[in-house]
Amino acid sequence: MKKRLWTLTPFFLIFSIAIFLMAAFSYRWNIYIFAIEMSIAIVSIIVVFITGKYFQSYIKAVVKSCAKSIKGVNVTYLDKFSIPVVVAGEKGDVVWYNKRFKDKICSGREAVGDFVAQYTSGITIERLVGAESSNVSYGDRRYTVIANEISDGAILYFIDDTNYKKIAQEYADSRPVVAILTFDNREEFERDYDDEQIAHAVVIVENTLQKWAMKNQALYKKIAGSKYLVLMEERNYRNLLEDKFSILEEIKSLSFPGGKEATVSIGVGRGGNSFRDNEQQARKALEMALGRGGDQAAVKTGESYRFFGGSSNGYAKLDKVRARVIAGTLIDHIKACENVLIMGHANSDLDCMGAAIGLWSAITKAQKKPAHIVVNQRQSVAKPIIDSIKNAGNGNMFMEPNEAVMSASDKTLLIIVDTHSPTFLESQELYNKCKKVVVIDHHRMMVNHIDNSLVFFHEPFASSASEMATELIQYMGENVLTRLEAEALLAGIMLDTKNFVLKTGVRTFEAAAYLRQCGANTVEVKRLFSNSIDSYKTKYHIISQAEIYNSCAIACADESNGDVRVTAAQAADELLSLHDVVASFVIFQNADSISISARSLGDLNVQLIMEQMGGGGHMTMAGAQFKNTKISEVREKLVDIISKIDIKKEKAKDEEN
Questions:
Q1: Per the domain annotation, does 30 fall within a domain?
Q2: 279 and 347, same structural domain?
Q3: 8 has pLDDT over 80
Q4: I need a surface site. Which of 163, 480, 548, 604 has the fewest CB within 10 A?
């Protein structure tokens, strides 16, 4: 800690007097000791004298500079100011202050030589001068400090605005926050329980929610069969942040007959100008939470989102009513347009292409509308299915993005499949040009999703876009799929379910059965997944370089070829077969960017990990892309995130689910 010379003056004086007395006492015993001690005493007195003079000149210089910096005002006038004023030296030391500062802040105590920072909440003189004003606290009072720089320091003005700041804080703490909650899987309870059991389960869930609301001093109100409204103040919302919406886990821990588990989703709106604004934000936040699979809380503040929970797989809906309604609406829009363009995400895979091919068949055959699939064939990883379609004589089905942009008009209907983010599209230019847009996707909801669509068919519980397209096709016409088209759809389902292992529900098998009836040959579908010998070698070369961190396998591909995206994804799948590996990550170079292919078997939500790195996806399959970075930097960031995860806790959650 820095010391000021003048703060040592009393110690020098005491030391000098003590040495002088010792010298006088030792004169009788030893003349040499007397001489030494007397010399030290004289030097000490000289040092005290010199430092005292230095201190006086220092204060005069700073105060003189202060007086010069305030034209027409002298220090005597500053002493009469009605607010506390301090003159600080260039090192941040107090060299002068007025009577108001001494009475109100120092309580009559002398403060010359103190550091200014002890009165300004630790803020240094440099930061005070650099800011227009600074908020500080001292004792039970709050001040706004304005600093005026002078040549040898600064003049600080302390404006006591404690009452104003208390009022402002109370205003901020009492701002309204609106939360809308929904009982996610109530339909499942109604399907499996009798009336008495259902009523009992609902009462348990509602009582838990009501106690949670009371604990947080919030108003609780049931607004629909499975929806609840909670109103609270901003100060109570901060309590929810501290415990990270523990109500989600509390609801999941409730006990029900048959081992059933209840989950809730929460949408929170805050930061708006009124209850109405926050209620609208809460509805959008709830929609986002449900779009990401449910069992989580989404908080919307302005345009930004925060997410909590989301560790379970969610619950698939068995009711196909929505699919039938969507199909009817889609048919109406198809009839009203001149032509249809179907587009997926960049680097389209078998799921993306399978869904597009199936819809193309239904549109051209059942609805008799001209349609094309927009795909960059050179960059697509679904080349096998594209080549099969071309060899069958349907090459005119596909259209390059630049050609599609030229042919699109205001009466063109654009159907987007297997993505709902405008940044991932095959052609953003085409999306911007088309006025009529339909979205069909199964990925968990992202913040920057397409929000101007005529139809937004989003099912995060579906296994794949091909499964969703298959359901729609069944309501769009009869006998519209050929064997090749049915195989394309089945290949898409098999890709995203890892051969019916992951994210497979009853509706998945129903869709697969329908495609089998349409002539899909499982042997031919299997051939679509075959690799070249070079790709096979590359895959196992990647696997051989994998390392295990916190039960997660991480591998980096040191090669960049045309099939690296597919090979990396296959390597990530293969790494999951290793003992005690709960998730796998393969980092690879893809054109001018770095990509990550992430996989898990459900013990760990890789979507949440990829979202921390700017990506997204599903709980069991996700990814991210990075520009202007290196593989080593991406790997270091990934390892840092993984090292902070409690794998045992995540696995325990999955076993409970």
A1: yes
A2: no
A3: no
A4: 163
